[in-house]
């Protein structure tokens, strides 16, 4: 007897979803999705691609060698004669040595060493640890492959996503391949710094040092002029008097002002409003003025159009001037880029300053190496060279103020004899 089909309502979408069985459709779609993920349909593939016929077979020789014989058959095996087995060993001494060695080894062996050995063996049995044996800077094509597959993703996003995967590649700094500065490591010193310089070279080095010192004095004078000398010194009493006068401005009211205010009558600022209508003549004149204004405006626009046509030559000249300016700007930029490797960059808040010129006065010159005076420091010279070549950031010695500690005495920490008035009076006398 066939089962009676259940009749259900299919009026709404909800009832359709609830009562209609679509498991076969879902299974079919799931198979389709699986084939799409794998890339090839199972129905289109050949049997040779899906299955493989095993021709070699299994090699059971290793497995058979590992199987140990049971102890029961060994016992049943025939034993050799005692006489023959005794003849195999010439003397009993080697056997004794073996027993003694085993006993001594068992005594020496500690439980900690045994556990350590066991742990090492267990770790060796596990999978070997992958050692770091590749170059992180090498370009083996992985990075290019990732870029081709994900062209719509930015490089920063890729680097962030692949940070914890083996395919992540480090960014090579640009300064590894090329130096930031082309300045020489050791500057050739001025000939005037020699222990036996010529008169011309010595004068040149002295003039350079004098110019540098003069510039420092000039800057110091300028700072004093715009800070200290700009404001006159006022005594404290006069300053307090001026401050009181400034603060009291507007507080006192004179009697004459109050009397004048009482005598005056209230008057409105604006005149009274009257409902005065415009005449027809005024309305007509206003309308004519507006029309004339509009007409003049249109005439002006037309006149400007005609004048612009005559100004084409001027426009061409202005365009040429702009192009010339852009060209000059680009040339300056190129020159600046060329000079950039030979200049010192700003690496910190403090700008680089050249070291002071080490010079000798004419009376200090010795003329020979035996009586020469040592000037400057090689360490300081190398330090300045590193700063100049953008290897080290310029720094200065900073002096930090220490916080002043306020000292005071607590009464509860004193003894009774210390709290006496006599002691306090004695201390006051000492302070005076």
From TrEMBL:
- Tell me its family: Belongs to the NOP53 family.
Asked if the keyword Nucleus belongs to this entry, the reply reads yes
Q: Which InterPro entries match?
A: Nop53/GLTSCR2 (IPR011687)
Q: Which GO terms describe its biological process?
A: ribosomal large subunit assembly; rRNA processing
Segments of skewed composition (Basic residues): 274-285
Organism, as annotated: Pediculus humanus subsp. corporis
Gene from which this protein is expressed: 8236317
What name is this protein filed under? Answer: Ribosome biogenesis protein NOP53
> GO CC annotation: what is one?
nucleoplasm
Its subcellular locations are: Nucleus, Nucleolus; Nucleus, Nucleoplasm
> Would the keyword Hydrolase be found if you checked this record's keyword annotation?
no
Signal peptide span per the entry?
none
Q: Which domain of life is it from?
A: Eukaryota
**Which keywords are on file for this protein?**
Nucleus, Ribosome biogenesis
């Amino acid at each position: 007897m066939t089962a009676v089909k259940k009749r259900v309502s299919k009026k709404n979408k909800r009832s359709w979803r609830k009562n209609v069985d679509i498991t076969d459709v879902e299974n079919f779609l799931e198979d389709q999705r699986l084939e799409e993920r794998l890339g090839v349909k199972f129905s289109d593939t050949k049997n040779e691609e899906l299955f493989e016929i095993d021709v070699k077979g299994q090699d059971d020789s290793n497995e058979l060698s590992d199987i140990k014989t049971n102890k029961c058959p060994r016992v049943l095996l025939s034993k050799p004669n005692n006489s023959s087995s005794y003849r195999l060993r010439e003397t009993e001494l080697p056997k004794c040595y073996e027993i003694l060695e085993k006993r001594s080894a068992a005594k020496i062996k500690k439980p900690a060493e045994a556990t350590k050995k066991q742990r090492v063996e267990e770790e060796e049995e596990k999978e070997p640890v992958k050692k770091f044996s590749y170059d992180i800077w090498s370009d083996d094509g992985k990075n290019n492959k990732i870029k081709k597959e994900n062209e719509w993703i930015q490089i920063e996003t890729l680097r962030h996503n692949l940070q914890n995967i083996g395919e992540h590649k480090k960014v090579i700094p640009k300064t590894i391949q090329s130096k930031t500065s082309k300045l020489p490591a050791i500057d050739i010193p001025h000939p005037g710094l020699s222990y036996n310089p010529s008169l011309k070279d010595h004068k040149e080095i002295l003039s350079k040092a004098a110019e540098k010192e003069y510039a420092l004095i000039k800057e110091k004078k300028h700072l004093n002029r715009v800070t200290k000398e700009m404001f006159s010194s006022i005594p404290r009493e006069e300053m307090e008097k001026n401050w009181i006068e400034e603060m009291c401005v507007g507080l006192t009211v004179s009697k004459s002002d109050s009397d004048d205010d009482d005598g005056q009558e209230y008057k409105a600022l604006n005149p009274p409003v009257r409902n005065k209508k415009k005449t027809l003549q005024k309305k007509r004149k206003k309308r004519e003025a507006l029309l004339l204004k509009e007409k003049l405006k249109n005439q002006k626009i037309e006149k400007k159009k005609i004048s612009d046509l005559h100004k084409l030559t001027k426009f061409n000249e202005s365009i040429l001037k702009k192009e010339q300016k852009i060209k000059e700007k680009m040339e300056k930029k190129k020159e600046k880029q060329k000079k950039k490797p030979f200049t010192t960059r700003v690496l910190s808040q403090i700008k680089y300053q050249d070291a002071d010129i080490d010079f000798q006065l004419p009376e200090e010159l010795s003329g020979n190496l035996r009586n020469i005076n040592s000037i400057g420091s090689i360490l300081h010279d190398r330090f300045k060279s590193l700063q100049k070549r953008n290897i080290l950031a310029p720094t200065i010695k900073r002096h930090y103020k220490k916080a002043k500690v306020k000292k005071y005495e607590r009464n509860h920490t004193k003894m009774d004899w210390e709290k006496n008035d006599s002691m306090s009076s004695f201390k006051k006398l000492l302070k005076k």
